TrEMBL record:
Lineage: Bacteria, Bacillati, Actinomycetota, Actinomycetes, Micromonosporales
SUPFAM superfamilies named among the record's database cross-references: CBS-domain pair (SSF54631), P-loop containing nucleoside triphosphate hydrolases (SSF52540)
Positions with biased composition (Low complexity): 404-415
Chain spans, region Disordered: 400-439
Domain (ABC transporter) ranges: 7-267
Source organism, top-level taxon: Bacteria
GO molecular function, one term: ATP binding
Matches recorded under Pfam families: ABC_tran (PF00005), CBS (PF00571)
InterPro entries the record matches: AAA+_ATPase (IPR003593), ABC_osmolyte_uptake_ATP-bind (IPR051921), ABC_transporter-like_ATP-bd (IPR003439), ABC_transporter-like_CS (IPR017871), CBS_dom (IPR000644), CBS_dom_sf (IPR046342), Gly-betaine_transp_ATP-bd (IPR005892), P-loop_NTPase (IPR027417)
Example of a GO biological process term: amino acid transport
UniProt name for this protein: Glycine betaine/L-proline ABC transporter ATP-binding protein
Transmembrane segment boundaries: none
Record's keyword terms, sorted: Amino-acid transport, ATP-binding, CBS domain, Nucleotide-binding, Transport
Domain CBS stretches: 282-341
């Protein structure tokens, strides 16, 4: 049966060294304080990890060198036996599997991409890409076909007959990726897979991974100590510190609500305008009017809210555009009974709720009225007045350790996805002109 989570980890520990049992006892009874381990010849590399990885997500594990990332990922495919705890793959606890069953698991369900690609120098690119299939005993013609297909996915089919040393670092990394793709497993573990690449090439392979992922929908556990990489790739990110997972959340959650000072310091250098999205800075629209309610209603709401335009929604709360005071007055004069004919999409620019803040400046500058933010279903989710964007920026660049990177917006009073935003906002923005001081 399909379960939501592809991987699930329950109170997982890995203690290296001789007195692991003693160390475990101390760890389990000491509520997070590890000093008492001093004196024991052990390293607690992973301590009480609990999380699940959802099918189809990129789950990033991030942490400084030595924080336990590789140890953790190696327990996920049974390369390392845990000291304590369970690892479930598709609902099956793999910690009890025999070696042969573990090999089968790694062949059929979980492949791994390493930092140094582990390519064999005397084999062609194609033979490297098909290596796992060869080990699995797949007939030559079939495995070459599969490997070629995987090389095509990463844009390297034209290099199939080359040797690894004839390729650049980025290309070699893509061969490593192709090898994992050729294996055709649903789960991929990637341990610092891109860390050896220089920054520009690294971005390229990151993009490629995201493109492939959009198409293939694998379940990926991606390890990195690079925060920007984590933020770019991760649907969710787990932050590790000294063996413990100290926070799990989306990039945005980790930026805006770091669970402690350690995480806050870790994220202090990120370009937040690339991570924070429209939905994090949007506000409730002052006036929302149903397209069927007629110009008199629109005119009244415009008066009450003292705004230059009201936002018009149609069936299923879908966003249609705006109506200005002039339009409404004219419509009343002309005796129109609904707003259909006078809705304009030109007066307020529109962005998706997932648009990074960095990409909202231009629409905001061009838009006489606050920018409309729509969700995936096309519903009006909120608006972004210029002042809000500026004040959000102010707090974004403020000292990150204050943990107050977000302005107040929607997260204090979440907008139910199928309820219309209601006009509750008190700060009017009369003409859509820039009205003043960023908070
Ligand atoms: N085989 C081992 N025997 C003993 N200690 C080990 C072993 N492997 C790792 N360790 C220790 O466990 C801790 C976690 O190591 P791990 O390799 O998991 O960290 P990491 O987060 O992957 O670091 P890096 O970013 O440098 O790869 C470190 O203190 C390390 O020295
Ligand atoms: Mg490591």
């Amino acid at each position: 049966m399909e379960t939501v989570s592809a991987l699930r980890v329950n109170s997982l520990y890995k203690v290296y060294g001789n007195r692991a049992d003693k160390a475990m006892e101390i760890l389990r009874n000491s509520a997070g304080r590890d000093e008492k381990l001093a004196g024991l010849p052990v390293t607690a590399a992973v301590v009480d990890a609990n999380f699940e990885v959802r099918r189809g997500e990129i789950f990033v594990v991030m942490g400084l060198s030595g924080s336990g990332k590789s140890t953790l990922i190696r327990m996920l495919n049974g390369l390392l036996p845990p000291t304590h705890g369970t690892v479930e793959v598709d609902g099956v606890d793999i910690t009890t599997l025999k070696p042969a069953a573990l090999r089968k698991l790694r062949r059929e369900k979980i492949s791994m991409v390493f930092q140094h690609f582990a390519l064999q120098p005397h084999r062609s690119v194609l033979d490297n890409a098909s290596y796992a299939l060869e080990v699995a005993g797949m007939p030559r013609a079939e495995r070459r076909e599969r490997a070629l297909q995987a090389l095509r996915m990463v844009g390297l089919d034209h290099c199939a007959d080359k040797l690894p040393q004839e390729l650049s670092g980025g290309m070699r990394q893509r061969v490593g990726l192709a090898r994992a793709l050729a294996a055709g497993t649903d789960i991929m573990l990637m341990d610092e897979a891109f860390s050896a690449l220089d920054p520009l090439i690294r971005r390229e392979v990151q993009d490629q991974l995201l493109e492939l992922q959009a198409e293939l929908g694998k379940t990926i556990v991606f390890i990195t100590h690079d925060l920007n990489e984590a933020m770019r790739l991760g649907d969710r990110i787990a932050v590790m510190r000294a063996g413990r997972i100290v926070q799990i959340g989306t990039a945005e959650e980790i930026l805006t609500d770091p669970s402690n000072d350690y995480v806050a310091q870790f994220v202090a250098d990120v370009d937040r305008t690339r991570i924070l999205t429209a939905s994090a800075v949007m506000e409730r629209p002052l006036g929302v009017v149903d397209v069927n309610s007629g110009p008199r209603v629109a005119a009244r709401v415009l008066r009450e809210t003292q705004t230059s335009a009201v936002y018009i929604t149609g069936r299923d709360k879908r966003y249609l555009g705006t109506v200005t005071a002039d339009d409404a007055t004219r419509a009343v004069r002309d005796g129109l009974t609904n707003l259909q004919e006078i809705v304009s999409t030109g007066y307020a620019r529109k962005v998706d709720d997932t648009t990074p803040v960095a990409d909202i400046f231009a629409p905001c500058a061009e838009s006489p009225a606050p920018v409309a933010v729509v969700d995936a279903a096309g519903r009006l989710a909120g608006v972004i007045p210029r002042v809000t964007l500026l004040s959000a920026l102010g707090s974004i660049s403020a000292d990150a350790s204050e943990h107050t990177a977000t302005p107040e917006p929607a997260d204090t009073t979440p907008t139910g996805s199928d309820t219309a935003p209601v006009p509750v906002q008190v700060v009017a923005e009369p003409s859509g002109r820039l009205t003043g001081e960023p908070a």
